[in-house]
């Protein structure tokens, strides 16, 4: 990943406006019933948990002690309250049991609903992110931001889940606890309540400072984790190269540096937490101690200092219980802040990805190609690889500062014709073919299929009409049959076998221990290059499109297999338009037209015989490959 790519991606992330609000708007709205039920149950559970200390305090003064204080509870009508101390005792007991039972049931309800809500949102975030990824322009993947992308699907989705599940519910708990406790304490004894709650502004200020200080550190940490993932993935993906070039220590060194970045950025977050968490605990503890000292002194000696009035034992007990209750949720603030910060950075990345502009997608007025014949036309096509993340989404005529890879290329292939592209490596042959599939769009000129500009037709119908066998054959981990079926998912076993036969692949498949059910391993590592290529050809045969692009389709096979494949390719190409890219000129001698490309330009064109007769670039390439014979 270059510095430019990184900053472009960072810029998109930084532009995400209020990411957590957006998370609720885009994903929470359709699930709001679950969220509302969870929040309501949480509210009720927390409120119920405040009941026992109040009942206990009241009972101590009205039932157990001198019995001079009347039995009264906030929000409970006087008519409901029994008159005898014994009945009041049982009334208190039932209230306490009822409160605990309500709290337990509601805790269960909000636990289940919060889980359901959070995991359902995450499921949607993960699948949307992956679908978006698949829609992104090829250039995004060319820039190899794989680690960053994997981090979005793994770490970021996890962070958001923790936020939606824990942080959201704990914030409500905190609000109810602190708000409810403050309300009860003030109604019981405002003076002692002030002593208990005097630390709250300190807690808020300290938390605000922490949130501001930790935010950039979190972002740095997440970037470091993403780079680390990319490094690991590159190292493992290229393990064969690492071994054959003896570069284990070099790769390990790079991973060590990357891991050290993760370590340092993590420690810089933790260093702040080390200060914050004990600080919060200390402030909360101070509140408890102050309440105990002032309240205890008040009971023992009388109202201390400027305070005045009475304090009953029951009220003191309620205060002590309540103070303990708000210490726990307040100490949670640090976790909530952590989780919110984490989630904000993660949501920025999720929506940063969602906001990456996609240039290659169906236009609103795109039409589906119906039953195309396969006429391919390139008219004055130019192309340069440019970075879509950096570009503003406009169709820049020249691709910005990027060097042109194709310049003014034109050719026609009538239905059923074969056009071949030859030329030195890096001449732009593969790029030319990719434009037909709209893996990229030309920066100037147009590519047409059956007279329709490929940008004006639906991607689905276009890619259905064009079969592509590329230089790097990719197989998915799965069976051989599954891999062939990428050509047509509903194909019967018989059709799969026929396709394999046509691609000269049936024989080696039948020799495998489990035939078509043999697993090919990740990226098809358990097969040879030639075998992989034949499976890719079988896919194309099964696909049976009117246009076929063969990019060095026979490069990884021995001469004998090549001849066999060539026979089947010739059969395959007979009744469809075929664009062939080949280094071995012997495979294209029968093409209707051969284009010789050099540095993105067509330098010669004609049939094999024409080109030989001309005695130019093609003729000398031919002589070189046939050893002058
Ligand atoms: N994804 C990409 N991003 C940026 N530049 C690219 C990309 N793919 C190819 N190029 C560049 O475009 C030019 C043409 O590449 P292309 O693969 O089309 O050539 P080719 O003629 O098919 O080569 P070969 O015969 O080696 O396959 C090369 O200079 C290459 O470096």
TrEMBL record:
Keywords: ATP-binding, Cell membrane, Membrane, Nucleotide-binding, Transmembrane, Transmembrane helix, Transport. CDD domains: ABC_6TM_exporter_like. InterPro entries: AAA+_ATPase, ABC1_TM_dom, ABC1_TM_sf, ABC_transporter-like_ATP-bd, ABC_transporter-like_CS, P-loop_NTPase, Type_1_exporter. One of its GO terms (molecular function) is ATP binding. It is a multi-pass membrane protein. SMART domains: AAA. It is found in: Cell membrane. It comes from the Archaea. The keyword Nucleotide-binding applies. Residues 36-342 form the ABC transmembrane type-1 domain. One of its GO terms (cellular component) is plasma membrane. The chain crosses the membrane at residues 34-56, 89-112, 167-186, 192-211, 282-300. Residues 376-624 form the ABC transporter domain. Its main location: membrane. PANTHER family: ATP-BINDING CASSETTE SUB-FAMILY B, ATP-BINDING CASSETTE SUB-FAMILY B MEMBER 6. This is ABC transporter ATP-binding protein. It comes from Halopelagius longus.
């Amino acid at each position: 990943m270059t510095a430019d790519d990184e900053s472009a991606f960072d810029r998109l992330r930084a532009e995400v406006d209020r990411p957590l609000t957006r998370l609720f708007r885009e994903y929470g709205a359709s699930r709001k019933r679950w969220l509302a039920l969870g929040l309501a149950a949480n509210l009720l559970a927390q409120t119920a948990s405040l009941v026992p200390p109040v009942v206990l305090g009241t009972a101590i003064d009205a039932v157990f002690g001198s019995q001079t204080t009347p039995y009264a509870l906030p929000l409970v009508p006087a008519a409901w309250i029994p008159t005898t101390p014994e009945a009041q005792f049982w009334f208190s007991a039932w209230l306490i049991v009822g409160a605990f039972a309500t709290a337990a049931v509601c805790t269960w309800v909000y636990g289940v609903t919060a889980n359901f809500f959070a995991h359902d949102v995450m499921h949607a975030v993960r699948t949307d992110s992956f679908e978006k990824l698949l829609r992104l322009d090829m250039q995004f993947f060319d820039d190899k931001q794989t680690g960053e992308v994997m981090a979005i699907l793994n770490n970021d989705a996890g962070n958001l889940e923790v936020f939606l599940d824990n942080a959201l519910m704990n914030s409500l708990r905190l609000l109810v606890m602190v708000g409810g406790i403050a309300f009860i304490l003030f109604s019981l004894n405002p003076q002692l309540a002030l002593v208990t709650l005097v630390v709250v502004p300190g807690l808020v200020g300290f938390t605000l400072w922490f949130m501001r200080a930790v935010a950039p550190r979190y972002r740095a940490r997440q970037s470091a984790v993403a780079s680390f993932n990319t490094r690991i993935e590159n190292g493992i993906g290229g393990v064969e190269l690492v071994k054959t070039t003896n570069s284990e220590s070099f790769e390990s060194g790079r991973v060590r540096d990357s891991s050290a970045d993760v370590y340092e950025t993590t420690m810089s977050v933790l260093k702040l937490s080390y200060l914050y968490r004990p600080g919060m605990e200390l402030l909360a503890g101070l509140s408890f101690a102050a309440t105990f000292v002032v309240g205890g002194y008040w009971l023992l000696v009388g109202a201390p200092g400027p305070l005045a009035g009475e304090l009953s034992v029951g009220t003191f007990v309620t205060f002590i219980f309540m103070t303990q209750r708000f210490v726990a949720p307040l100490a949670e603030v640090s976790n909530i802040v952590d989780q919110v910060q984490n989630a904000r950075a993660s949501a920025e990345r999720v929506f940063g990805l969602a906001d990456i502009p996609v240039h290659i997608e169906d236009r609103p007025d795109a039409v589906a190609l119906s039953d195309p014949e396969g006429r391919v036309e390139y008219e004055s096509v130019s192309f340069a690889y440019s970075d879509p993340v950096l570009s503003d989404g406009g169709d820049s005529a020249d691709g910005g500062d990027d060097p042109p890879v194709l310049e003014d290329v034109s050719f026609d292939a009538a239905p059923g014709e074969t056009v071949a592209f030859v030329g030195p490596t890096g001449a732009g042959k593969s790029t030319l073919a990719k434009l037909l599939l709209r893996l990229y769009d030309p920066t100037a000129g147009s590519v047409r299929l059956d007279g329709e500009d490929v940008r004006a037709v639906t991607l689905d119908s276009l890619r259905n009409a064009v079969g592509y066998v590329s230089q790097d054959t990719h197989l998915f981990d799965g069976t051989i049959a599954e891999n062939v079926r990428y050509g047509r998912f509903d194909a019967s076993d018989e059709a799969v076998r026929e396709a394999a036969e046509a691609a000269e692949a049936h024989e080696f498949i039948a020799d495998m221990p489990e035939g078509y059910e043999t697993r090919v391993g990740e990226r098809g590592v358990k097969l040879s290059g030639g075998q992989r290529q034949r499976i890719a050809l079988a896919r194309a045969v099964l696909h049976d499109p009117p246009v076929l692009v063969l990019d060095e389709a026979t490069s990884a096979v021995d001469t004998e297999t090549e001849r066999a494949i060539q026979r089947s390719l010739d059969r395959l190409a007979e009744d469809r338009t075929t664009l062939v890219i080949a280094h071995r000129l012997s495979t294209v001698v029968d093409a209707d037209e051969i284009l010789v490309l050099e540095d993105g330009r067509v330098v010669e064109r004609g049939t094999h015989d024409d080109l030989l007769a001309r005695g130019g670039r093609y003729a000398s390439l031919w002589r070189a490959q046939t050893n002058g014979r």
